[in-house]
Automatic annotation (TrEMBL):
InterPro entries in the cross-refs: RraA/RraA-like, RraA/RraA-like_sf
Positions that bind Mg(2+): D121
UniProt-listed PANTHER family: 4-HYDROXY-4-METHYL-2-OXOGLUTARATE ALDOLASE, 4-HYDROXY-4-METHYL-2-OXOGLUTARATE ALDOLASE 3-RELATED
GO molecular function annotations of the record: 4-hydroxy-4-methyl-2-oxoglutarate aldolase activity; metal ion binding; oxaloacetate decarboxylase activity
Keyword Methyltransferase: no
Protein name, as recorded: 4-hydroxy-4-methyl-2-oxoglutarate aldolase
Binding site for substrate: G98, G99, L100, M101, R120
Leader peptide range in chain numbering: none
Cofactor (UniProt): Mg(2+)
Entry keyword Metal-binding: yes
Sorted UniProt keywords: Magnesium, Metal-binding
Length: 228
């Protein structure tokens, strides 16, 4: 897979477009990662979009002594062009991501950060004009309750309702609609599928504006959309 070419192509599309393609490929929930929404540079507003391969970070509770303890700081190893995906322990009260981390991430060339947990220092992220998605905000740093145990390893979404795994290198797409994860092996296929579905939807929209019934228009235009 040519990652740069895939990312460049996906930048033209919304997370909804990507989810529609993934649904055709039988990916559960169209790759949507429920509960992760945009907090910076604005709260669920504007054209901000992040697209890039996942650089994953997994936190564990501080008392999990049998978990690994990586050397160095994860924030100093972020590859340029990546989307940082941080997994906090489920139901964590403390935040696991703050303004200094975004300062370094932006300097390193990351295109955004997605926090499966809480962020803090919200205004600092916004002042940096750096995209951050998260479950919620908080005030307190992570050191009291959690620590990093793994970098660039698969992480599981914190959800009782959804079984989703984010692998290093999976393509993450985030905008004001939410966050979608594209498995690496399907990324090129997603890029291939989206144009025909968008063309069909544009024709349906034009028909609706001219008074045509939705069901009738969809039957005509969507029947030719590539399925796989």
């Amino acid at each position: 897979m040519n990652v740069k070419a895939v990312v460049k192509a996906l930048e033209a599309y919304t997370s909804c477009d990507v989810a529609d393609a993934l649904s055709k490929l039988k990916v559960p929930h169209g790759g949507f990662l429920a509960g992760l929404t945009m907090w910076s540079p604005k709260r669920q507003d504007g054209p901000t979009k992040v697209v890039g391969p996942a650089y994953t970070v997994r936190y564990v509770r501080k008392n999990y002594e049998n978990e690994p303890q990586p050397s160095g700081h994860y924030i100093d190893s972020i590859p340029s062009g990546s989307v940082v995906f941080i997994s906090a322990p489920a139901r964590s009260i403390n935040a696991c991501y703050g303004g200094l981390m975004s300062t370094r991430a932006k300097y390193s060339g990351a295109v955004g950060t997605i926090v499966d947990g809480r962020l803090r220092d919200l205004q600092e992220h916004r002042d940096l004009d750096y995209p951050v998605f998260a479950r919620d905000v908080g005030t307190t740093a992570p050191a009291e309750t959690m620590r990093v145990a793994a970098i660039n390893e698969p992480v599981r979404l914190n959800s009782d309702d959804q079984d989703a795994v984010i692998n290093p290198g999976d393509i993450l797409v985030g905008d004001l609609n939410g966050v979608v994860c594209i498995p690496q092996h399907l990324a090129e296929k997603v890029v291939e599928l989206i144009p025909s579905q968008l063309e069909a939807d544009e024709k349906v929209a034009a028909d609706i504006k001219n008074g045509r019934l939705v069901a009738e228009s969809m039957k005509e235009h969507r029947s030719g959309v590539k399925k796989r």
